[in-house]
Amino acid sequence: MNQGIETLPVWVSLPVTALLVLGSLIVLIGALGLVRLPNFYQRIHGPAITITLGTGCILIASMIYFTALQSRLVIHELLITAFVFLTAPVVAMLIMRTAVYRDLRAAKRDREPESDETYPCPRKK
């Protein structure tokens, strides 16, 4: 496979390199947003939004590279792209809903008067 890399034309290597660098920078910005933003709801937006664009750039670069290397159209990366584009926003939304539910339960627990019992009694039938 190294022989194919050495003989790769410049018109293929330039867009592949540009897309890989762009995708890597976008994913890096998302990771920095995950680390630097102050609360959970702001932190989840960095990876949730940038994962689709960064992953898309990397997968398009892969598709161009292997299409030129094998001299035939390679499109199996489109399946990976579709899977990432469909699952990443859904997973982010489910994580955010879980956090909202957790915060609502914590607020409800804080409003309730404290009882003397450490553990609640099970309901009697």
Automatic annotation (TrEMBL):
<keyword id="KW-0472">Membrane</keyword>
<keyword id="KW-1133">Transmembrane helix</keyword>
<feature type="transmembrane region" description="Helical">
    <location>
        <begin position="47"/>
        <end position="66"/>
    </location>
</feature>
<dbReference type="InterPro" id="IPR005133">
    <property type="entry name" value="PhaG_MnhG_YufB"/>
</dbReference>
<feature type="transmembrane region" description="Helical">
    <location>
        <begin position="12"/>
        <end position="35"/>
    </location>
</feature>
<protein>
    <submittedName>
        <fullName>Na+/H+ antiporter subunit G</fullName>
    </submittedName>
</protein>
<feature type="transmembrane region" description="Helical">
    <location>
        <begin position="78"/>
        <end position="100"/>
    </location>
</feature>
<keyword id="KW-0812">Transmembrane</keyword>
<dbReference type="Pfam" id="PF03334">
    <property type="entry name" value="PhaG_MnhG_YufB"/>
</dbReference>
